Every structure is written in structure tokens, then in C-alpha cells.
Amino acid sequence: MRILVIGSGGREHALVWKLAQSPHVTQMWCAPGNAGIAGERLAKNGAPVQCVKLGAEDLPGLLTFAQEQHAELTVVGPDNPLALGIVDLWQKDGRRIWGPNQKAAQFEASKVFSQRFMEKYGIPTARAGTFAEFPAASRFAASLGGRCAVKADGLALGKGVLICHDMAQADRAIEEVLVKGAFGKAGASIVIQELLEGMEISLHALCDGQTAKLFPTAQDHKRALDGDLGLNTGGMGAYSPAPFLSEAELAAVGDSILTPWLRGCAAEGIDFHGILYPGVMLTRTGPKVLEFNARFGDPETQAYLTRLENDLVELLTASIDGTLGDLALKWNPMPSVCVVMASAGYPGSYAKGKPILELDKAARLPNTKVFHAGTANAGEQVVTAGGRVLGVTAWGKDLRTARDAAYAAVDIIRFEGVQFRRDIAAKALAVAVGKAEVRM
Ligand code: AMP
Ligand code: GLY
Questions:
Q1: Is the bond leading into 32 cis (omega within 30 degrees of zero)?
Q2: Does the predicted TM-score (pTM) go above 0.70?
Q3: I need a surface site. Which of 40, 115, 138, 180 has the fewest CB within 10 A?
Q4: Phi and psi dihedrals of 3, rounded to 5?
Q5: Which of the ligands is closest to the CA of residue 292?
Q6: Burial (Cβ within 10 Å: 0-12, 13-18, ≥19) of residue 230
Q7: Distance 277 CA to ligand 2 centre (A)
């Protein structure tokens, strides 16, 4: 099978790496890819994965490429092309593509849509309202004592959520988004949710239009600095599984979200093929969905796919064809930990082009895979080319072993200005020794 993967981050490197292991794959391209992706080879025939200089949002360019190369399957990593309707475009052209269509991608592309959907179909979520005018929004925030999350409706590069602790902050946030247009059209309407407290986890479910197969838990680390301090980022590290739910609790939480979600999709005529990724807060009064994403989480994917035992081509094919019900997801019980190495300044502005040293040495470590996020080839060197540069991922017999292995690799790799968190998976290890309170 000839496969085109779209995207260029750690998530896409993990997807490419896992797909490349499948005996079904005879040729693979990635648009635009990165230096790590360009270094992958197919298990079947040793052919290198080819990176193509086309942006993930260049839909006409990508379609022409898929047509010319006779790509038999296209796999979409990021949210933007999904929101732009890449799946509908491919389907009109009679081409196979994995990911939700534009209507289904609204779960991520519109927080107003998602919030209303959750309320209509009884999916546990935060108390919330949706607004397009300042006075009503401000009144609702006041009813929450100003303790709220103000969320731009549309996609805002992961920056569209403002956490407020008092009315002054809330009014400022509402004004920024609704009145001053800090996120442009994405902020023409907003969702205001009550501020929830608890442990935040990531859930993922692979869906085929009728069936949703729940993954194990994962936990991301969204803030830039240790102790969940600093600015929000795209994710500074993740691990799976997260030990805050037993198997039975996870099944119950999954059911409380996915059963009404599937019912709602059927009622609304939403044909969702792809990954549904709910961000969930485990609160004292039960799990609540903060938001839905309609694609794989990054860095969660890097932890997940190093644990997945199924052939990913077969899973994605079943997700497209509506035959997931016949398949069982199989996971390596070994936990996996991904530590992101980022450029100085990230998530703000950062320099590019810094040589990355000792990648080969780290690659020789056992039970370790160094996924690339923002990297490029410059002559003989691999250099930094993004905010998040690498997702150093390792697995082991228990979480501590996996985490130690990931940090052993991190400690070998060097580039100027590198920053990373030292406490990825620390919350889970604290639970293991009984130090953390688990709120459920
Ligand atoms: P979102 O993009 O909606 O996931 O929001 C980004 C981050 O803001 C989440 O990962 C949470 O850490 C935080 N957040 C979002 N909504 C809430 C909420 N209602 N209460 C507390 N924290 C929230
Ligand atoms: N894990 C955060 C994200 O992918 O949005």
C-alpha cells in the first residue's frame, strides 16, 4: 500500500514510524515531514520514507500529489487540514483518507458546537455558557465568581483558552477575545466554563462511525516549566498509562463519555471516522470533559504508539471502513514516557538552525525511540527547526524504569538553548508511593 502522511511534528513521526513497520506498506511519503521522518525506512522493503515539500494546509497541492503518486491511503495528523475539509475533498475525488470529515471535525474546530453537543446529549462537562456579546458573557462569569475558563470558539494554535480566577481577569479575558478580537474570527464567539479542579488526563478513542474503541489513559504536561508552572505549550511530555484510574474506572469513564457521544453523532448525522481525544478533568464530583479534539494528541501519540501492538494500517483501515467492531486493540503492558526537548524561548519566539548533537548515540539505547518534532537536515547535520524539537520516548517494565530511560537519552542529546521538563510522569510516581492525592 502507498501511504501519504500529512504533518511534521512528533505525532507524525510516531505515526510514520509505526506505519512503516506494517507489512502492508510498500511506499510512504510525508508532507512536509522532518529530519527524523526522512530517516525512517519501511520494514517491508527497506525503502526510505520520502518527505515532500508541501504544507499540511496546502490542500490543492496535496491532492495533486496524492493523485500523481497514486497514494492509496492518506493519514492526516494535525487539526487544521481536517477543519479545512481535507477528508471531504479526498472523498469527492474517490480517494481513501483517514480522519474525520469537516462536519465531524467540528468537535475540535468549534468549542461552542462541542459544548452544546455535550449538554444536549448528557456528556459530563463543566457548567458552561456560550456567548457572542460582552454583557451576557460577563454576567455569566460573575455567576461563577470570576473563576472560569474563557475559550475562543475556533482553532487558535492552542492559545485560545484563558484561565481566570477573579472578575477583573474574567472581564479582561472576555474583552480580549470578544471585543478586541485577540484570536480574530476564532473568537467571534466564546465558551465560558466554570474552573474545574483535579487531575487532568487525556483519553483517546479510535472511531469508525459506529464503534469507539477506547485507548489506555495518558497524561500530557501542558505547561512549559516543572511543577506545571509557566506558559501553556503544545505539550512538554506525556506518558501512558496514567495510574489515576483503575481498568474498571477507565471503562466507566469511557462509557459515560462515548455512549452518549455515539448516540449524539447518530442523531446529528455526524459520521466520525478518526480519533476522538477528550481532555478530561477528574474532579471530586466525577470526570468532566474540558474539550474534544478530533485527532491524536501530541505528545500522547508518541507514548501510545510505542505501546501499540496492532498493525496501525489495519486499525486505520478498519476505522475508515466501519469494521473496528471486529478488532481488539492490543497494548504492550510496559509503560512509555515521552520527554519533549524544546528550543529556548518556546512557547514564545525561538531561534532555529541549532545543530543537534549525539542523536546517533541516543538512538543506540535500548527501549528508546527519539521522535523528531521540529528538526531539519542541513548538509550533514540535523538542526533545530521548531519550538518543540524532539520527543524522546522510552519504555520499560514500570513507569520509573521508562522515565529513567527517557531521561538517560535526554541527557545525552545536546543543542544550544535546549529546555525540557524534569518532572514528566512525576505525578504518577508520586501516586505509586502514596504521596499524591488522587481526586476522583
Ligand atoms: P483546552 O484547549 O480546552 O484543553 O484548554 C487548555 C487547558 O486549559 C486544558 O488542558 C486545561 O489545563 C485548562 N482548562 C481548560 N478548561 C478548563 C476548565 N474548565 N477548568 C480548569 N482548567 C481548564
Ligand atoms: N496533547 C495536547 C494536544 O495535542 O493538543
A1: yes
A2: yes
A3: 180
A4: -120, 135
A5: 1
A6: middle
A7: 9
